[in-house]
Amino acid sequence: MNQASSDPFVFLTLGKKSKKTKTQDEDNKKPVWNETVLIERTDSDESAVLFWILDEGNKNAILGYTALSVYPAIFSKLNEKYHLPLFFGNSIIGELILHMSFKSK
What we know:
two-stranded antiparallel sheet; 105 residues; globular; 4-stranded antiparallel sheet; mainly beta; Immunoglobulin-like; 1 helix
């Protein structure tokens, strides 16, 4: 991530819904968020989950971002591990690794 010292958190959105993780304040260059985030998806929602890594200690400056299409995961209905490239501008600066599952109602 693009950081010397930061207090990063993940802000994720799916359509108009959004969630925020806890802030990592240990100045860790490779922060780990071991959290479960639930977002209920409707048919009218966007087709991708957007992930923004932001720095709470620097007015929520963008440290990196990525996206994941929800359609492959919805159809597989499996617990999947994803390795997503983390971008800053046009450069890949790292990787966001997440476990994601989709459940039907």
